[in-house]
Amino acid sequence: VIEEGGVKMKLTVIDTPGFGDQINNENCWEPIEKYINEQYEKFLKEEVNIARKKRIPDTRVHCCLYFISPTGHSLRPLDLEFMKHLSKVVNIIPVIAKADTMTLEEKTEFKQRVRKELEVNGIEFYPQKEFDEDLEDKTENDKIRQESMPFAVVGSDKEYQVNGKRVLGRKTPWGIIEVENLTHCEFALLRDFVIRTHLQDLKEVTHNIHYETYRAKRLNDNGGLPPMTVETEENHESNL
């Protein structure tokens, strides 16, 4: 549970250890896609239940952080295939991992190359242009898409003393890389993007676009679901 300004948010993080590590990675994204759709199915069954709960527990996945290896060259075929398939069912946010292995110039060039490859391959990542509802959102998100994404981050769970303060960081022969220092990496930008500035929009795009797409298909297929009941008030308990 994260609390800020008296507001509590229940955050669920789902890890996928071993993804892409096999000799044959064909269709290795399917278990992840299956899990995402299972959460939509669970929510749908609660929603159409005649004796539905006042507050529907929401286990839907509202965003998927896809970590890209900092090769400095190009995206792997696996990267492209994963994002191509999963972007249809969940909000994909591409992230460059271990960004401290690249120089500033290499990082800038790699970001541009990743954005170009995603565009050439028709892969939409969050925030999608077509979902910007007003000019202010469009202007802000255009800047994020063109300048910040994919976010280049450095991760660590170790603390070090820097200028009299304890900070999360990675120790190298050249000094301490501070995880939350924007001059060192973009972790703080990613964190604020996900749980502050775009939190509500991530939930809305998930519900109004990805979930509704799944819901319409399931109901059209008439997959043995009971008749729909009329919903008079939206009141969902959500996890991000």
Automatic annotation (TrEMBL):
Entry protein name: Septin-7
Source species, domain of life: Eukaryota
Family matches, as PANTHER family: SEPTIN
Septin-type G domain ranges (all copies): 1-221
A single MF term (Gene Ontology): GTP binding
CDD domains: CDC_Septin
Organism of provenance: Galbula dea
UniProt xrefs under Pfam families: Septin
Region (Disordered) location: 218-240
Protein location: Chromosome, Centromere, Kinetochore; Cleavage furrow; Cytoplasm; Midbody
Gene Ontology, cellular component aspect: cleavage furrow; cytoplasm; cytoskeleton; kinetochore; midbody
UniProt GO BP: cell division
Keywords, in A-Z order: Cell cycle, Cell division, Centromere, Coiled coil, Cytoplasm, GTP-binding, Kinetochore, Nucleotide-binding
